[in-house]
Amino acid sequence: MSRLNIESLSWAIDTRRGEPRLLLQGIDLQVGDGEFVGLIGPNGSGKTSLLRCAYRSSEPASGRLLLDDEDLWRRTPRWSAQRIAVVLQEFPQEFGLCVSDVVAMGRTPHQGLFDSDSREDRMLIAEALEQVGMSAYAQLTFANLSGGEKQRVLLARALVQQPGLLILDEPTNHLDPRYQLELLQHLRSLGLSTLASFHDLNLAAAFCNRLYVISEGGIVASGTPAEVLTAELLQWVFGVQALVDEHPLHGYPRITWITQS
Questions:
Q1: 255 vs 241: CA distance, rounded Å
Q2: For 147, how many CA atoms within 13 A lie in the half-sphere containing its CB?
């Protein structure tokens, strides 16, 4: 498990017509050992941009990103890849690779340039596929899978990296309700430090220890789901009225969006 600390982060896009335009500004965010932290906000608020900074894809204009007190941007990409695993919304083009080969790519940061998969690597790959319910698909072509099946394979690829920090961008986006719940329950059971963006606020409420709300490139609220997911905040940030009550079985916030009749 790892700790992530983001301090006073700003990120700008190069407009090539003048001064760079800030899209993220003054971001402070922490993920503690074994915490499952959610990032929520409307479309275009900066969720994906912030995650890209957190997994060392987009370099910030200012501020620091510390993983276990080490500055990510002062370490090598290989160092980061050995400690941070990422599952994104979009699916990569894997050019005919089978499922087990896609998962095996997660071992690359731990191998030498000309190393082949060891016995330990193959065991980790088999275990990860079993964990996500994809063992029977190991020799099938990745490109021929459904969206939900691809998402589970990419999670297996992330798990074989043996990361200290897992970063997920809309992890349930392509999954039906059964696999949404199974995936998030499994992730929670792993005890990995996790930062995940969510579109479905009820899933965020059910599975996250803490939430950060991002709007127009800045963090506007943070805390437990009960502290953050209020009708007033949802109206302010998302512009929609909501009824917020307690889940009848588990007690976390339950959101019902109110449509105009």
A1: 10
A2: 10
What residues pair up with 255 in beta bridges, in sequence order?
Answer: 244
CA distance 14 to 155: 32
Q: What is the pLDDT of residues 42-79, one digit of tens each?
A: 998 999 999 999 999 999 999 999 999 999 999 999 99
Query: What is the Cβ-side half-sphere exposure of residue 95, based on CA atoms within 13 angstroms?
Result: 0
Of 202, 157, 148, 212, which Cα lies nearest the Cα of 175? Answer: 148
CB 96 within 8 A of CB 109: no
Read off the pLDDT of residues 102-149 as tens digits, 9 standing for 90 and up. 999 998 888 766 666 778 888 999 999 998 889 999 999 998 998 888
DSSP result, 157-221: HHHHT--SEEEEESTTTT--HHHHHHHHHHHHHHT-EEEEE-S-HHHHHHH-SEEEEEETTEEEE
- In eight-state DSSP terms, residue 227 is H
Tokens read off for 168: 């997920």
Closest by CA position to 32, among listed 229, 164, 169 = 164
Question: Domain map of the chain by residue range?
Answer: 1-83+164-178+192-230, 95-162
Task: Give the global pTM.
Answer: 0.90
**How many whole angstroms separate alpha carbon 208 and alpha carbon 220?**
18
Tokens of 177: 């309700």
CATH architecture assignment, domain 1-83+164-178+192-230: 3-Layer(aba) Sandwich (3.40)
Spatial contact of 156 and 131, defined as CB atoms under 8 Å apart? yes
Pick from 103, 78, 72, 59: which is nearest to 2 by CA?
A: 72
